[in-house]
Design brief:
Helix content: 40-55%
Radius of gyration: 18 Å
Number of strands: 8
Distance between the termini: 26 Å
Largest sheet: 8 strands, mixed
Shape: globular
Order of helices and strands: EEEHEHEHEHHHHHEHEH
Length: 288
């Protein structure tokens, strides 16, 4: 099998969680860890893995609650970002990933940045693709979620967020902001929606909408990490993303926290990789 061919596997960590992951590249190459977002899985990286594999040992896990990672009912797992980050941290130890660059997108950003707080010496560089670490990056998409944060016991506000789990909402995240939405492969949102439709996904995702507020609370800690550890950062965002908006990318540089930071934009939306994988992949290879 070619080193560029993607392999799939799973490994058991964190008291019984079977983490599914995709992998490509030579074992002795520098490691690129790709962390996906909502509502997707490592499938979103299928083309980027192929692009990066000649240069890196690429590893892309499915986060707990997403994709094909299996969390046994007996585990009584509580779906919080702290727990997801802990599971991924254990995954990195299990695979003996001692040094890696981490690509973070959407939910992958707080997961990866929590991982960086736990293992600062392991992180060689950060690539943020619409992966937020500043309040400036939160678009109006977040307004109903913020309303739930402000009133977390409200069943009405919780149930209102179920609209974000529909087929139309899932497709919206892929096509909105793309100059050529007709080029977006429909299997992406179709797979995401199929997995979102499985029980008990609704409660898992609504719990994570609520818990996302803990990531915002950690933004000062993430920013302190930038200041003290000085990881090289490439922020390359879809400039038309309504979820994590361009000021979130620009603040990586405008904040003055980082000495080695590049900010780039592609003419895309939230899932910018789908139509811009060559541009983003080339920027990553050049940056690293």
């Amino acid at each position: 099998m070619s080193h560029s061919a993607t392999r799939i596997s799973s490994v058991t960590v964190d008291d019984g969680i079977q983490v599914f992951y995709r992998e490509a590249g030579k074992q002795d190459a520098p490691v690129a860890l790709l962390l996906h977002g909502f509502p997707s899985s490592s499938f979103q990286y299928r083309d980027l893995i192929t692009k990066l594999a000649p240069h890196y040992h690429v590893i892309a896990p499915d986060l707990p609650g997403f994709g094909f990672t299996v969390v046994p009912d007996s585990r009584n797992y509580t779906y919080t970002f702290a727990n997801i980050a802990k599971t991924i941290e254990e995954f990195t130890y299990k695979l003996e990933l001692n040094k890696f660059s981490v690509y973070v997108f959407d939910y992958g950003a707080p997961t990866g940045l929590r991982l960086a707080l736990a293992r600062p010496d392991a992180v060689a560089a950060i690539i943020s693709q619409n992966g937020n670490a500043f309040v400036e990056g939160l678009g109006s998409f977040w307004d109903p979620i913020k309303a739930y944060w402000a009133d977390p016991t409200s069943e009405e506000k919780r149930e209102a967020l179920a609209s974000l789990l529909t087929y139309d909402s899932t497709k919206f995240q892929y096509v909105t902001g793309e100059a050529h939405p007709e080029r977006m492969p429909p299997e992406t949102w179709t797979l995401d929606y199929a997995l979102l439709s499985q029980p008990p996904q609704k409660d898992i995702q609504l719990d994570l909408f609520l818990d996302y507020r803990t990531n915002v609370d950690l933004y000062p800690a993430f920013q302190a990490y930038f200041r003290t550890s000085q990881p090289p950062v490439l922020a390359i965002w879809g400039k038309n993303d309504p979820i994590f908006i361009p000021p979130g990318a620009m603040t990586f540089q405008a904040s003055g926290l980082l000495s080695d930071v590049e900010v780039k934009f592609v003419d895309g939306g939230h899932f910018a990789l789908e139509n811009h994988v060559e541009e983003i992949g080339d920027a990553i290879i050049s940056f690293l």
